[in-house]
Amino acid sequence: MRPSPARLLNILVPVKRLLTVNRAVDYAVKIRVNPQQTGIDLNVKHSMNPFDEIAVEEAVRLRERLKDGVKSIKAVTIGPPKSIETLRTALAMGADASIHVETPESAPAPEPLAVAKTLREIIKRQDGGVDLVILGKQAIDDDLGMTGQMLAGLLGWGQATFASKVEIDTVKKEAVVTREIDGGGEEIRCKLPLIITTDLRLNEPRYASLPNIMKAKKKPVEKFTPEDLGVDLTPQLETLKVAEPPARVGGGKVANVDELVEKLKAAGITAA
Fold first, then answer.
1. What does the UniProt entry say about where the protein is found (predicted)?
2. Which domain holds residue 213?
């Protein structure tokens, strides 16, 4: 019996636009609460979630390793018009095309379940289907880390979360993924189609070269609205108030344990 022919993979990479100030390279920028106390001041530079950068890089590396085994790499984002900048970054890194689910500038960021439902509808509409979805294990602005798992549940696909190594066999249509766990790594074998979420040790994203940045401007960007996809991005959680933490007061010194005990008692702190 002849082996089944290798399948050319269609890879979808969801990416999120978030605040650059959350990244360590911008440690000098202070995050401030907005005057309405509904969130943080967004009038700062934005960039792609770093775990999603790793996801884009891994998709491009898979194409390089598999030679002709990858048919297309498509990036997708949900957000306001300025989110096109994040898609351009993914395109400059090596994605072939992109999808922008555009929301109003004033709209709150969608919650993980709404994102997963949106991605499910995107996947349904892809000619040739989607074999692999690679996305960051979490976004570093909300640190929720649920979208990949929810998407796998909605689609009924396998999932390999916190991936630190990915190997794809396009003939067997399966992946061997090493994932980060407490105290080491776990190797799992999964059938395609598959959801993979990326961990830090998977790779180091490349910098987009100037020629690729210029080429990215000519790559296609398909646009949808949530209404086009039949999804509701209305948040289910309500933020009542956001406030800065209270200013820290200076400490004091004591000469001995007895003085420390007296100060604790004066402050109303007693032993349990």
1. Mitochondrion matrix
2. 9-266
